[in-house]
Amino acid sequence: MHTRGEPEGPSLVLFYIMNAQMFQNRKKDPDEIFPETLKNRFLAAIFQKDHQAAGKVYHAIVDQALLTQPPLSENSEKLLRQIQTAFRRFRPFLVPEKNRLSDLYTDLNRLLAGIAGSAGKSVCHVKFADWETRMDLLPWQMDKVCETAITVQLTSGCSNFCRRCNEWALPGIRAHFSYAAARQILHLLVEQNNTDAALYGASDPLDWEDGTHTLADLLMPFCFSTGFSLLTKIPRTRGRVLKKLVHHGISLSVSVTAANRDRITALETRAGIHLQKQHDSDDLLIAAGLDEDFTTVKSSITDAYGTEITPEGVFIIIPTFTSALHPMGHKKIPVTRNTRFFPVKRIGRQALLVDYFKPLEVVGEKNRSFHLSALLDIQVETLLLDNGSMDLSPPGMRNLKEYFTIFDETARLRRKQMTRSVIRGLKKHFFSDGRYRDLDPAKKRQYRHKIAVHRDFCKKKTVNASRISAAAFFLRSVRDYLAANEDKTAIIAHLITPEADRLEQCYGRIARASNPEQQFSSDFCDFFEMFRFYATALVFGRHKQAADRFIRANPAIYDPVAERFMPSR
What we know:
Number of strands: 18
Distance between the termini: 64 Å
Strand content: 5-15%
Helix content: 40-55%
Shape: globular
Largest sheet: 5 strands, mixed
């Protein structure tokens, strides 16, 4: 290992304080504090063109990694690999610190290479009792984890280690669930009527094994009662397991690239089988993973809301755009005993229908279903990065620009014309096989409320009030987020600078001559453009007083029954 000099003067004190704080925080929640916060601080310093601050943060990151007792958590190692990728991407900018940082980069690369090199030599099998003890969840929490699981990652690490892996899978297999543990987890999912979870993640499902047990042995008892999904690249030593899965009718898909297409074709010919294929092109359709350039925003990679089960823990999964903030295209929130709610599981078409910019529908203790009163930080980040481009929104998913069209006069008149058909639809939903008088009192109230809400939203005064409330709710969310997330704000500012500059040039003079409420109330205003103007301006500290006055004058909430924003008074 290279010998490095310590920082001098005030920076020496800062260096030791940062390391002490990191060690203290690591005991609390290693995946929350180490090293994602420092990854963002590193990128923020680079984007702010502060090479000295970037060097200090990188120094702290490497020292923390080298001093941490192995093994690193899966998420921590992924983040360190993202940091190394960012270092290579911005190496020219770090030239003033080149010699010292090059030694640090080499040290961290050696550490990661050593971890990867030892992978597979001592693969552990995680027992269910040990996993359950480490999770330390309450019974209702474990039930909700199994009810909302969208992914069960049977293995940590991957034998394929694809260069463009969207999940940044770790090279080499590190751990498996034991056969008994994997079987028990799948039984728990079935008990919660969760039969369509994906049995992969940052791993290849065919890598899983325990002694003589293979994935086929694990899944055969479930194959006629579940629809667990598999996506594999077929590791080279797993052809026999694949044939056994196909023979027993276990549904799976093969991820195809130029690297494995010929091998898969040969396997199909030899075994006399046909495999369902995805990504059947020279490269994966979504460029992410190690191709992430950290300077652009791409569409979401993840298309589901729920939880993920891995040998190391349980995480809530929230989709997001793929960017420097979240290179995997989603946010993983560790589930602990302090977790009070879980997002309602949404996959496929259901997930596309979730409006990311509305408070999430969640489920808590005693099966209580409710909507959050505010946006999660991850939702605000997506809100700030959503410039209205259709390239960022997968087909079928509504973005904020599309949502804002409900406030247009054309849309209001159209709703008014459709009142009769709306009522017919509500009748079919509430009492298709009966009559109104047969409904229980709660259902009657819901039915009447739905009709009243629709009719009310056909009134111009109501539409304008809702439009103002939506703008105020979103701007308050943005303002509060920016006040608590300095490093992330710097990253977002870098990603949206061209758009923010254009909007300031177009609307800055108008904003100084009037107030936000006048602008948002005008039928001649491009509502989405004006909202983007104020949201991006807040990122750069512009027009803050006008936005604050507007937010204070228009307290707003989201009404999940009416499915719209409205005044809170």
